[in-house]
Every structure is written in C-alpha cells, then in structure tokens.
C-alpha cells in the first residue's frame, strides 16, 4: 500500500515490538541528521490545479560525493508509505540495521535522503489551511515533486539507489519508469506494480466513503475532526496492517486483544486529520505502472512478505509482473511468528541480505 507507515508502525509495531527486542547495536544513537524545506513555485498538478508554493520537507544523513564530472555517486533516496514521513526510517529496526558504521547504507559513506511526500509530514498538505480545496495530487505528482527536490533543491544529479516502502514501493516503480537513467538500482518493498483493484481497492474506498459520508466532515470544512469516520478508518488500517501469527502470540487472550484495541485508538485518534487521510488514500486512484515496466533499466530487487494483507502473495501478481522488468528479481519473505505483516518492509533484518546483493550487482 499504502504503507500508512505511521499508522502501521502503530498497528503492528506496538504488538510486534513485544517479541523483537533491539540488539545492543540497534540501541546506540544513530548518525546525525539535517532537515530542510524546498519550495517549488507555481507547481502544476496533473489535475490541472496548481499551488503558488509547494513546500517539500526532507531529512538527510551524510554528505554528497561527486565524481570529476560533477555526477553524484552516493545518494540514496528512501520513500515512505501512506500516512508516514521520512522520519519513520530513523526507527532502530531500520536505521539501526542500515545506517551505522560498516552497515549497508553507512551514513559516513552514503548521502541518504528521506523526504516527506506531498500531503504528508511537514510538506504541504490539506490541513495547512486549504482543506478540501487542496489540489488533488496523485502518485505521479508526488514523484515529480521529489524529482525536483532532489535535482533542483539538493543538487543531486544521480541516485545510487531508490527504495521505498508500501506507497514508497509504488513510487519506486514510477521513478524507474519516469526517470530510467537517474538511478543505479531500485528496491521496492511491499506493493504490487498494477492498478489497485479487488479487495485492496475496496478497503481503501471504505475509508474514503467513511470520511465523505460522515455528516461531521462538512465537505472538508469541519471545525472538529469527524471522529466516527476516523474511528472507521483506523479499524480498516489496523486490520490491513496486522499480521495474524505475531498478533495471536502477543495477544493470546480476549482481554489482551481488547486492551490492545482500546490503547491503539486512544493513542492514535487524536493525531489524525480527516482531510489529510482522505487525500493520502485517494492519491493511489490512478496508479498503474504495469504497461511501462519494460522502460525500467536499473537492476531491481522487489521484496514482499508472505503475511501482507494488502499484497497477498497468493494472487501471484508480483511474481508475474516482475518478468516485465529486464533486470528485476522478486523475493517473497515467508510469514512467521517474527514477521510483521505489511510492515515487514520497515524491519531491515528480514531483507538486508537482498539489499546487499542488489548493491553488489549494481556497483560500478
């Protein structure tokens, strides 16, 4: 998916954290970060709408290195999922496994870029003031905006790696098709490269309908959040991001499960904005890279997990579509008591060996 990473890292993170204690290495402080904002003036959306100023927030680690021709050689772009931000990748289960000294994306060697997508985090979004008058952005708009941030705002002329989780996984496919010569490698995690349909579309539409049909939404001009709509949305997000095996293990009784659900809503309901969530889910409406997968040139390592409610492996979509990618490989991580459903994408221990293989294969 959607990653709804902030929400999924709430949905599965709280339950699975009980069974996945970080190692000593993961508990050490991470590398220093820098943050900034890049403003794109008069940004034109595919809908025909525009914004005089589109703000794109980003976090970086490390410093760019350029060759004798000025070409950036060490930049890594990591893209978050729906509802998330670039900061989610600073969690120990991700940064503690990848960004430290001697690790695969050692921040002393790589220039790591963690942007917030349009409608997310500290980038421009409906709740800033335009509410339901905010432009109806889609995934192509989000990728175009990030390209401008990377190339114009940060002066990066080439990417060593583009990777993303959930929505960021889908953006990785769009990046590979739209800017096929701009990266050395691609690593999409937790999505499929086809139009969102079937059960995946239905539960998303249920969320959008719950918001739009709530009388308290008031066409997006509510003074107080439409709580019933958000409660319904969180219901679906919790189930979509859940993993049955670890949740059964960590919530073995009725009372455990009931308490977890109550705590989940108590912790998250107040942090949601209905317009932001509606736009975030709706941005996937015209995603469908399936017809252009042959344009992707960079080596690709595509990874899904066996207990992903959103991208169930039994559909066989990922296995079929990867055949269209010239230099593509697909890996399915088996479900177990240690995986995290859809959110397995953010636990680097499960797939770091495949990243190592990709970096070696695409090295120069």
What does this structure look like?
It is a single chain. With 364 residues, this protein is α/β, with parallel strands linked by helices. It has one domain: Alpha/Beta hydrolase fold, catalytic domain (Rossmann fold, 3-Layer(aba) Sandwich), CATH 3.40.50.1820. It is 34% helix and 15% strand. The chain is built from 13 helices and 8 strands. It has helices at 5-11, 13-16, 24-27, 95-98, 139-153, 167-178, 198-213, 227-240, 244-250, 254-268, 274-282, 317-321, 352-361; strands at 34-44, 50-61, 75-79, 111-115, 161-165, 186-189, 300-305, 328-333. It has an 8-stranded mixed β-sheet, with helices on both faces. Strand 1 and strand 2 (50-61) form a beta hairpin. Helix 5 packs across helix 6 (167-178).
Structure summary:
This protein is of the alpha/beta class and 364 residues long. 34% of the residues lie in helices and 15% in strands.
Features:
364 residues; Rossmann fold; 8-stranded mixed beta sheet; 8 strands; globular
Q: How are the elements arranged and paired?
A:
Blueprint: H1 5-11, H2 13-16, H3 24-27, E1 34-44, E2 50-61, E3 75-79, H4 95-98, E4 111-115, H5 139-153, E5 161-165, H6 167-178, E6 186-189, H7 198-213, H8 227-240, H9 244-250, H10 254-268, H11 274-282, E7 300-305, H12 317-321, E8 328-333, H13 352-361
Parallel strand pairs: 3-4, 3-5, 5-6, 6-7, 7-8
Antiparallel strand pairs: 1-2, 2-4
């Amino acid at each position: 998916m959607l990653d709804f990473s902030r929400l999924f890292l709430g949905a599965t993170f709280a339950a699975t954290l009980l069974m996945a204690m970080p190692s000593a290495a993961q508990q050490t402080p991470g590398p220093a970060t820098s943050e900034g904002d890049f403003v794109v003036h008069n940004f034109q959306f595919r809908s025909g709408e525009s914004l005089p100023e589109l703000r794109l927030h980003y976090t970086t680690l490390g410093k760019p290195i350029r060759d004798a021709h000025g070409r950036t050689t060490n930049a890594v772009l990591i893209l978050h999922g729906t509802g998330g931000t670039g900061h989610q990748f600073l969690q120990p289960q991700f940064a503690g496994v990848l960004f430290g000294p001697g690790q695969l994306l050692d921040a002393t060697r790589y220039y790591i870029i963690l942007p917030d997508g349009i409608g997310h985090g500290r980038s421009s979004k409906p709740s800033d003031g335009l509410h339901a008058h905010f432009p109806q952005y889609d995934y192509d708009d989000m990728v175009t905006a990030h390209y401008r941030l990377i190339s114009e705002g940060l002066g990066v002329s080439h990417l060593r790696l583009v990777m993303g989780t959930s929505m960021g996984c889908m953006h990785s496919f769009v990046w590979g098709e739209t800017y096929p010569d701009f990266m050395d490698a691609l690593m999409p995690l937790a999505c499929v490269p086809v139009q969102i349909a079937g059960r995946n579309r239905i539960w998303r539409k249920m969320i959008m309908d719950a918001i739009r049909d709530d009388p308290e939404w008031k066409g997006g001009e509510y003074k107080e959040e439409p709580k019933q709509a958000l409660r319904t949305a969180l219901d679906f997000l919790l189930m979509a991001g859940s993993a049955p095996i670890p949740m059964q293990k960590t919530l073995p009784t009725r009372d455990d499960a009931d308490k977890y659900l109550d705590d989940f809503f108590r912790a998250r309901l107040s942090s949601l904005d209905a317009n932001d969530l509606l736009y975030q889910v709706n941005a996937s409406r015209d995603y469908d890279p399936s017809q252009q997968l042959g344009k992707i040139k960079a080596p690709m390592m595509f990874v899904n997990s066996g207990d992903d409610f959103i991208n169930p492996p039994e559909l066989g979509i990922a296995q079929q579509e990867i055949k269209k990618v010239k230099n593509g490989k697909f890996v399915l991580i088996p479900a177990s008591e240690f995986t995290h459903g859809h959110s397995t994408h953010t636990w680097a221990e499960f797939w770091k060996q495949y990243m190592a293989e990709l970096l070696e294969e695409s090295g120069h």
